[in-house]
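Illustration 12: SEC14-like protein 1.
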Amino acid sequence: AYERRFPTCPLIPMFVDSDIINEHKNEDGSIHVIERRCKLDIDAPRLLKKIAGVDYVYFIQKNSLNRRERTLHIEAHNETFSSRVIIKEHCSYTVHPDNEDWTCFEQSASLDIRSFFGFESTVEKIAMKQYTSSIKKGKEIIEYYLKQLEREGITFVPRWTPPDAHKLKCGTSQPRQPASPAINIPDSAAKEGSSSKEIPSTSSSPSEATAETPDDKLDADYIKRYLGDLTPIQESCLIRLRQWLQETHKGKIPKDEHILRFLRARDFNIDKAREILCQSLTWRKQHQVDYILDTWNPPQVLQDYYAGGWHHHDKDGRPLYVLRLGQMDTKGLVRALGEEALLRYVLSINEEGLRRCEENTKVFGRPISSWTCLVDLEGLNMRHLWRPGVKALLRIIEVVEANYPETLGRLLILRAPRVFPVLWTLVSPFIDDNTRKKFLIYAGNDYQGPGGLLDYIDKEIIPDFLGGECMCEVPEGGLVPKSLYRTAEELENEDIRLWTETIYQSASVFKGAPHEVLIQIVDASSVITWDFDVCKGDIVFNIFHSKRAPQPPKKDSLGAHSITSPGGNNVQLIDKVWQLGRDYSMVESPLICKEGESVQGSHVTRWPGFYILQWKFHNMPACATTNLPRVDDVLASLQVSSHKCKVMYYTEVIGSEDFRGSMTSLESSHSGFSQLSAATTSSSQSHSSSMISR
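Figure caption equivalent — predicted structure in token form:
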């Protein structure tokens, strides 16, 4: 069935032609190798083809059929532009080792673009698009030719036997086997990855097929219902990033929909998506954003004068948020509340948007992962360009862009006045390119004409202030009374208080200057618990015990140690004259923690006294067989700028009677670990225990 796609295949439009350039068979006929030169008409922009100077791309494909071992190996590489782009592909059909009636199919490919006239990213997208398309068509093509064989009466091909054995059996008739159904091509593949799936090649019931676990492949119904259309490569990226999070961020994995937003924001580049997602998870944890809807009540000034609110949904089922920016006194709100309160309110709006997306997904029976925002600029004037107000707006945009990517499905800007281009010039550089594409701007009453509001919102829910019939309960805004204004000092203190409402602390760790936390234990068998994230660099975590208290920390000569700074504080407690084993002892084995990891643990104390938790800069070990540093060591050292690491941590001491062997038991002590769960074991030899989970 596979060989029938040559010399050309009507089901593969880009496959124009092929010529056999080499063919070989061994003496007994068990091995048959065919090498072809395939001519492809790649679906690429005409301009790119003109710049490259080619109309067609040629590939060399080598098919090796081994009848003795019952395998078919297919290798392909590009001949065109081989000095600039290297594409390699390998496919194989093999017999399942445990069941001879089952066929295994595996496919892998790699792409290496060295240079391509400045169009490297375009070529990569074209290559991935073509590869994804070929995977989708693979199953359809093999089924097509299998059915063609069946129509011709070919439902069984006898297995190959050596020539001598064949002569002995020539008088006997071969038993007729049932026809083979279509082979299932796997739907999941990734660049420089491979995918495999075992498929029965004899008729069987669905229950007899090999079951796949959710970790290996997402259920098709689940994808359609909650995630939307995903290519095999996109599905593979989601699975790989989710598995990495499960390994490094135990107990706090975001939902697939949330992970998918970060992947889409970085065009499914796993490394880039992982970086921004880890930063966002750390940020959410530090400022307890997950609890903002339940624990934070916006000030009355916001409820009265912030002219924005949720209003039904658009035609696509997205939640609709209405913002009457032109009627809002941004200067008054900033003067009365400060920048941080406004930011926190916007965060609560975004959290509510995520919740409404989940609800609408259930209501409409299809994935809804973003919302629509309608901004009315009627009344916008130079007052809105007040510098501190614009600064606050830019800060809000920056935070939202970093932590809520791909949540804005569409932005409808209505009744834009003449002053709007000035504001747009200030704001647009801070908005992601993908987000800017979702903006639709209407001047005057243009939104009432063709291509206007009715294309996106049902007539029944157009707000009354825009000429609709639906009463909109969004506050009308208005000027904030000056009696509510506060001084800069009051606002500054309030801003600090708002953002320090977190149980976590930040610390900087320098090469040669660890950060240390002192914990005094009065009762033996108390439990020291910790939870920390490594935000930057690699660190070593230690726990020490001393019978005597260290001296109070003094300000370090670097000026950044022993003081609190925006980047985190650094405190050193262990005196330089102290000796390990004499003045203090190590009670836990050192733990190396990599950048991006989240670590939770506990230690049951054996003695009263002073315990010191230490986060120390991790020096990469040199190669044991040579004095020269390894390449990996050099690269790792370059990634840590200025030999500085950052840690966000929380510690707590719990009485032994309150600790019941599980991290979830810490809820009663208000420890902030309520969403974490991991087993803690006890050592009968030392009467101490430690639990580490990443």
